[in-house]
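Lecture 7 notes: from sequence to structure.
We start with the chain below.
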Amino acid sequence: MDHHHILNFNSGTGDKIVKVRMFDRKKSKVGLAPGTLVHVGEKKAERVVVSVWAYNQSELIEKEMETVEDCLFFKDRPDLNVWINVDGLDRVEVIEKLGNCFGIHPLTLEDILNTGQRPKMEDYGSYIHTVLKMMLLSKNGDENLEEIIVDQISIILGPNFLIS
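Predicted structure tokens for the same chain:
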């Protein structure tokens, strides 16, 4: 269960209130071995969507994948630059299969699934893993109430691929 901490900020003019939503990072990860894949964070998506953009000088492919296994086709195409974007991390097996396909270390996969990571960059030799925070301003239907939502973005940059 996520525990929300809501901080209210008044802009000083009295006309808008900004809420910042933060989440406790404590989850059922305690006591598990390093590299154990468990999603830690708020469930945001109804389903996992895997999108692919692949290109070279003569070809552009833009596609939403039906299964993670469909991404294997792009791994075996070194002539293409590939960007794979995953929206929704709730289904751990999707991240695990994608990681196995592209040779991503289990500790990197664990960091991706733990959405409470601090921003960082790690060089694993065959790829670079970067964790960033993205802030979104949401109105939630009330014109006098704005909410800042903090979301995590994980980027893996390999020789001819980018996974986000």
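Points to note: Helices lie at 72-75, 92-102, 106-113. The longest strand covers residues 145-157.
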